[in-house]
């Protein structure tokens, strides 16, 4: 068997789909954060359909989801609004949160260097 054949053995090909762990993570995260909204991200050539949850402070998490319909069903069960990210984009509070986190990480890094 060729080296490429050996390396590829066990690889099923295609994208990894959502599993119960992904859905459990989304449920758990939503239950422990306030003001959560869902954003459905479309399937691409390299990633499966994903569901992004963003809380009122901009903290977020993302996991694979079975389909856009599956994302809407999950959001309804969690009683949260759901949006198509291709139509509405990402919320500004998420970008602001990420910027704050970068600043905090940089401060921590500088403190460690000077410490």
Can you offer a commentary on this structure?
With 115 residues, the chain is α+β, with helices and mostly antiparallel strands. It has five helices and four strands, in the order ααβββαβαα. The protein has helices spanning 3-8, 20-31, 68-77, 85-88, 92-114; strands spanning 37-41, 50-54, 60-64, 82-84. Strands 3-2-1-4 form a four-stranded mixed sheet. The longest helix has 23 residues, at 92-114. Mean pLDDT is 88; it is low at 3-11.
List its salient traits.
four-stranded mixed beta sheet, 115 residues, alpha+beta
Q: Any idea what the radius of gyration is?
A: 18 Å
Instruction: Estimate percent helicity.
Output: 40-55%
Q: How large a portion of the residues is in β-strands, by DSSP E?
A: 15-25%
Work out the number of β strands.
4
Order of helices and strands: HHEEEHEHH
Query: In angstroms, what separates the terminal alpha carbons?
Result: 55 Å
- Overall geometry comes to elongated
Q: How many alpha or pi helices?
A: 5
Structural class: alpha+beta
Mean pLDDT: 88
Question: How would a crystallographer describe the biggest sheet?
Answer: 4 strands, mixed
Unreliable spans are 3-11
Lateral strand order in the biggest sheet: 3-2-1-4
Topology (elements, then pairings):
Blueprint: H1 3-8, H2 20-31, E1 37-41, E2 50-54, E3 60-64, H3 68-77, E4 82-84, H4 85-88, H5 92-114
Parallel strand pairs: 1-4
Antiparallel strand pairs: 1-2, 2-3
């Amino acid at each position: 068997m060729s080296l490429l054949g050996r390396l590829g053995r066990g690889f099923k090909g295609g994208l990894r789909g959502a599993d119960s762990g992904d859905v459990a993570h989304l449920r758990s995260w939503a239950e422990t954060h306030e003001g959560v909204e869902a954003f459905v991200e479309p399937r691409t050539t390299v990633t499966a359909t994903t569901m992004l949850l963003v809380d009122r402070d901009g903290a977020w998490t993302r996991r694979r989801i079975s389909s856009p319909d599956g994302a809407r069903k999950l959001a309804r069960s969690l009683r949260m609004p759901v949006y198509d990210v291709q139509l509405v984009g990402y919320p500004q509070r998420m970008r602001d949160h990420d910027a704050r986190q970068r600043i905090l990480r940089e401060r921590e890094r500088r403190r460690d260097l000077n410490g």
